[in-house]
Known about the structure:
With about 90 residues, the chain is mainly alpha-helical. It has three helices and no strands. The chain has two domains: about 1-40; about 45-85. It has helices at about 1-20, 20-40, 45-85. The protein is elongated. The chain starts with a helix and ends with a helix.
Amino acid sequence: MAKTVAVAEQQTNTGMQQLKSLPERTMSFLRDVRSEMRKVVWPGRAEVQSTTTVVLVTVFIFAGYFWLVDNVIGRAVEYILRIASR
Length: 86
């Protein structure tokens, strides 16, 4: 029973210690975030414009492809249903 009380007190103290160390851990986290953000290489305007162009062209190509496939499959299904309903 004494062990149970000691463990319960230790868990309570751990919770209080975590609560007390919260500002210090938060500041450490924010310092680490700031340090990592300094290592980030941000793209330039030209790179952003070129990748945006690639994305837009790709989207239109895929849209056309899926439109074509959808029409072909739709007409095939209509044809099959017309034959089946005779």
